[in-house]
């Protein structure tokens, strides 16, 4: 288990170093989420007070759409020089590839969120009154679930030629329960309603995270096996 | 000892390898030659654990290569058609990354040594995106040698290399062989085959049609004639 | 070798056709008309039985996906695919009948009723599954990938149902009542008999379509194999 973790960190560090050098993916993700916010501010007039109600939903819309860009890259980038095969022949457990990619994607998406959510609040002139700790906890829990299943399906979709198109089709139906939970819990925290309701949504999301993490962790080796 | 016992591999509904058997002892060097599409690379992929055989078994030092035996893979160094390198990283970073995955000790030292050996040490801090094909092939060879495997599977290692690099590579292979490392080489370049290897297998349409040791005295022409006769099935 | 399977097919056919007519009779003539909704309630029989088959087909897909991970065979691969294709048809019918029911019962085409939404998401998962199967590559590879996706999809379905139900009760508690007046509540014994008979008939239809689909797919496979054999012969 320790070795799996060490290998995973090696792979994640490699991905993040690559990203740090080029800043291509993260830059694109941030620009893209800003553009989505911009488009939404045309679609829903931000000066209208009732628009505040869609803020929790918007947080997740921008996370998912910008996250999809990063997820698509994470396995496509391994196809250059067929380096994924290099990882497959290495003496490592296939799960460590999964874990490494999850960590790298999680860091990437979290960084993007740290920029895009304040931008969203800024452009929609939204004053944050909720409990920050709970808010962060909810965002993190839902993001972990999103990244876990997203990374897994990105590995699956990377086998297809049109993987950028395939990934959202595979991912979005599976994300629906998580997103219901995420949007509801975020709404409760932002509108300072009873925290107990948010906790029960948080539990649902945590259960989802755990379940899918376990399933993906064990099924990942089947994705890495050649035919 | 690497043993393949009666391997058959079917992909889709096409038989790629039929009843393929081979035993490779330490210090042996075997060339695998044959026409395009004969199944040579498929055989390497099976031996490297990238594919599972449809039937038959692959034993490495008496242990079967399966999913759960990924630590056994440390013994195998596989050089494929592709380089498996990350083009955004520098040569040294590439070696460092693979060295970590293969749990190589003092990576820095060995990495530098190998980069010198393949003649890339001046370029060690340049991302390999800008490298020429031959330079990438050199680095790919360094990557395989870095992990100190007991079995080297080299799939057309001479492609894209210049004369100097070819003799350098042959030297490196010979060196490893003397240390008791077993070598399997796929090549379409018979000159190198005769120089490097002692035994040769001819694969044609997934079957071994010839298996004999190379007579170094006889030179290139008789070898070519013999190959053509074997492949055309006369 | 062909004989027993043809016999089963004929038996299914012989059973299916009268069962269809009997269920139509039961639905439209024999069973009493519901007091509140009137004749439009009849669609409920089709709705429930197709929904049942939609989930059954999905369960079958999941079952063959698990088997396929253990040992992929062409047989299992084909069965999972056919079941998914039939599943798409039945989920679509379920959605349509559900919408018609919603229109006549609550005067709205769509409600965020947990079961209905689950069926909608089920449809999306089915389609995604079929997309995975349409990837290019050898069938062994696709079998593995689609099996993995099928299993993940299967795990997801109950969670979707739970999440939506929860969401619904928190949003507008007991607007339509939880389940009771939709499936049960005042179901009279006559209606129940009709419903059960209908479910049986549609399940029979599913079995029949399954067998036919598998047969056709296998024929296709035989033809493809023969074709590649001919090409190989010509090439050598
Ligand atoms: N993933 C695959 N799917 C389908 N067929 C494959 C696959 N990989 C290889 N083949 C088939 O297997 C046969 C052998 O391929 P292989 O790559 O082993 O040939 P090779 O001997 O290495 O040829 P070359 O000298 O060109 O490298 C080919 O006919 C090829 O079409
Ligand atoms: Mg080859």
UniProtKB/TrEMBL annotation, chain B:
InterPro entries: AAA+_ATPase, ABC_transporter-like_ATP-bd, ABC_Transporter_VariousFunc, ABC_transptr_haem_export_CcmA, P-loop_NTPase. It comes from the Bacteria. GO terms for molecular function: ATP binding; ATP hydrolysis activity; transmembrane transporter activity. Residues 2-230 form the ABC transporter domain. SUPFAM superfamilies: P-loop containing nucleoside triphosphate hydrolases. GO terms for biological process: cytochrome complex assembly. Keywords: ATP-binding, Cytochrome c-type biogenesis, Nucleotide-binding, Transport. This is Heme ABC exporter ATP-binding protein CcmA. It comes from Cytobacillus praedii. The gene is ccmA.
UniProtKB/TrEMBL annotation, chain C:
It is found in: Membrane. GO terms for cellular component: plasma membrane. Keywords: Cytochrome c-type biogenesis, Membrane, Transmembrane, Transmembrane helix. Residues 14-172 form the Cytochrome c assembly protein domain. The chain crosses the membrane at residues 12-31, 43-69, 81-102, 114-132, 144-167, 191-210. InterPro entries: Cyt_c_assembly, Cyt_c_biogenesis_CcmC, Cyt_c_biogenesis_CcsA/CcmC. The keyword Transmembrane helix applies. GO terms for molecular function: heme binding; heme transmembrane transporter activity. One of its GO terms (biological process) is cytochrome complex assembly. It holds the Pfam family Cytochrom_C_asm. Its main location: membrane. It is a multi-pass membrane protein. PANTHER family: CYTOCHROME B_B6 PROTEIN-RELATED, HEME EXPORTER PROTEIN C. Belongs to the CcmC/CycZ/HelC family. This is Heme exporter protein C. It comes from Cytobacillus praedii.
């Amino acid at each position: 288990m320790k070795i799996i973790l060490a290998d995973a960190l090696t792979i994640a560090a490699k991905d993040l170093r690559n990203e740090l050098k080029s800043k291509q993916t993260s830059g694109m993700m941030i620009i893209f989420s800003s553009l989505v916010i911009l488009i939404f501010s045309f679609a829903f007039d931000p000066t209208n007070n009732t628009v505040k109600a869609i803020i929790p939903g918007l947080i997740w819309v921008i996370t998912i759409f910008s996250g999809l860009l990063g997820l698509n890259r994470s396995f496509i980038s391994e196809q250059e020089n067929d380096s994924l095969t290099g990882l497959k022949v290495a003496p490592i457990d296939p799960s460590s590839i999964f874990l490494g990619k999850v960590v790298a994607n999680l860091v990437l998406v979290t960084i993007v969120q740290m920029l895009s959510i304040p931008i969203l609040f800024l452009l929609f002139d939204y004053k944050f009154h909720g409990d920050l700790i709970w808010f962060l906890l909810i965002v993190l829990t839902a993001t972990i679930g999103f990244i876990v299943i997203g990374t897994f399906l990105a590995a699956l979709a990377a086998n297809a030629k049109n993987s950028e198109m395939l990934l959202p089709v595979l991912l979005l139906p599976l994300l629906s329960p998580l997103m219901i939970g995420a949007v509801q819990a975020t709404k409760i925290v932002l509108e300072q309603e009873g925290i107990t309701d948010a906790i029960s949504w948080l539990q649902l999301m945590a259960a989802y995270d755990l379940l899918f993490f376990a399933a993906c962790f064990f099924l990942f080796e089947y994705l890495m096996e050649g035919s | 000892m690497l043993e393949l016992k009666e391997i058959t591999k079917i992909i889709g509904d096409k038989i790629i390898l039929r009843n393929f058997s081979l035993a490779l002892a330490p210090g042996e060097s075997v060339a695998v030659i044959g026409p395009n599409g004969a199944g040579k690379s498929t055989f390497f992929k099976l031996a490297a654990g990238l594919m599972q055989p449809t039937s038959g078994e692959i034993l490495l030092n008496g242990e079967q290569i399966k999913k759960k035996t990924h630590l056994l893979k440390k013994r195998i160094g596989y050089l494929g058609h592709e380089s498996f390198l990350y083009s955004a990283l520098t040569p040294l970073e590439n070696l460092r990354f693979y060295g970590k995955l293969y749990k190589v000790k003092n990576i820095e030292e060995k990495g530098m040594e190998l980069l010198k050996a393949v003649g890339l040490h001046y370029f060690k801090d340049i991302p390999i995106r800008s490298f020429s094909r031959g330079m990438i092939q050199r680095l790919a060879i360094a990557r395989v040698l870095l992990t100190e495997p007991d079995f080297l599977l080299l799939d057309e290692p001479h492609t894209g290399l210049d004369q100097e690099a070819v003799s350098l590579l042959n030297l490196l292979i010979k060196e490893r062989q003397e240390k008791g490392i077993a070598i399997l080489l796929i090549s379409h370049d018979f000159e190198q085959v005769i120089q490097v290897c002692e035994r040769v297998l001819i694969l044609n349409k997934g079957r071994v049609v010839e298996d004999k040791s190379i007579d170094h005295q006889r030179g290139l022409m008789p070898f070519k004639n013999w190959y053509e006769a074997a492949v055309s099935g006369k | 070798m062909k004989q027993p399977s043809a016999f089963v097919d004929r038996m299914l056919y012989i059973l299916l056709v009268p069962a269809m007519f009997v269920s139509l009779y039961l639905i439209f003539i024999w069973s009493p008309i519901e007091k509140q909704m009137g004749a439009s309630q009849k669609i409920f029989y089709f709705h429930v039985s197709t929904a049942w088959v939609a989930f059954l087909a999905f369960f079958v897909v999941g079952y063959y996906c698990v088997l396929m991970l253990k040992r992929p065979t062409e047989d299992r691969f084909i069965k999972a695919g056919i079941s998914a294709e039939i599943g798409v048809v039945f989920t679509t019918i379920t959605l349509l009948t559900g919408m018609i029911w919603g229109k006549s019962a609550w005067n709205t085409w769509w409600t965020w009723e947990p079961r209905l939404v689950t069926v909608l998401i089920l449809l999306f998962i089915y389609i995604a599954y079929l997309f995975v199967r349409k990837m290019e590559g050898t069938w062994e590879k696709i079998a593995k990938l689609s099996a993995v996706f099928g299993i993940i999809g299967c795990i997801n379905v109950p969670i979707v149902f739970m999440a939506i139900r929860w969401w619904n009760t928190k949003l507008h508690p007991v607007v339509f009542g939880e389940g009771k007046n939709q499936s049960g509540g005042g179901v009279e014994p006559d209606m129940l008999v009709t419903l059960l008979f209908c479910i049986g008939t549609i399940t029979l239809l599913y079995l029949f379509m399954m067998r036919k689909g598998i047969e056709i797919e296998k024929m296709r496979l035989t033809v493809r194999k023969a074709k590649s054999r001919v090409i190989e012969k010509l090439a050598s």
